[in-house]
Design a protein that fits this description.
This protein has 269 residues and is an alpha/beta fold. It has 2 domains: 9-102, Type I PLP-dependent aspartate aminotransferase-like (Major domain) (Aspartate Aminotransferase, domain 2, 3-Layer(aba) Sandwich); 103-264, Aspartate Aminotransferase, domain 1 (Alpha-Beta Complex), CATH 3.90.1150.10. 41% of the residues lie in helices and 12% in strands. The strands form 2 sheets. A 5-stranded mixed β-sheet has the order 4-5-8-7-6. A 3-stranded mixed β-sheet has the order 1-2-3. It is globular.
Length: 269
Amino acid sequence: MPPLSPLNRSRRTDRGDQATKHDLAIAIDDTVGSFANIDLAPVADVVLTSTTKSFSGYADVMGGSAVLVPGSPAYAALAPAFAAHHRNEVAPADAAHLLANSADYLARTAVLNRNAAAVVAYLSRRAAEAGSPVTRVLYPTTDAQTRANVDAFLRRPAADDEAGAPGYGCLLSLDLASHAAAVAFHDTLPFHGGPHLGAHRSLKLPFNATVYGKDPAEAAYHAAYGLLPEQVRISVGLEDEAELVEAVAEAVAAAERALAAEGAAPKTE
């Protein structure tokens, strides 16, 4: 690949990144936020997306995309390199299926945003209660700095846009007060289990325990800065908003009972 052309320093110096200093291209994956919600073109040279997730939306086909940003100062070097070396190996049937699934991408995005916001609002209220089994909710709207970071890149909706105002996506996590409470919450929640996101059905996953739980030393290291094993990740789907909140409320009630049982259990030496 030929060397990149000098970057437009006025474009990035206000963010203080090292890519400008060292003349590196920036590739950003927008899958979790989804490009129906966020626009990273102002700061990326390449925008990567797993089209398997929200873009497809039905968990029945896989794909991915890499968009070279035309206004990027790296475009002049990247475009011919991609033209020379990229091999499109997407099966025609998969491409056709992705295209068909994406027909309601914007409409689905609006539902995913709304459902996630409703679940987060309920869990945040519960987390604010004394003695709640929910100790923290992780979503862009629950942390001021995270929200500011995301808000800076929310896309501007068109007047006739099916998705309406952009939102914060389908993915959220919550911390539970104890292992027993986390198990009770997870096992009561009537969602399918799995690491996917952006599907039409809501999904659950004890992500930290799954990824970091095999090695106790590794789990302790990550827990020390907040990646707790008592955390459950939820990817909301397209179900009825009220039914989703009700399902989560029942899982919180189960976690509450588990936490109370722990407190009532006799202590052993």
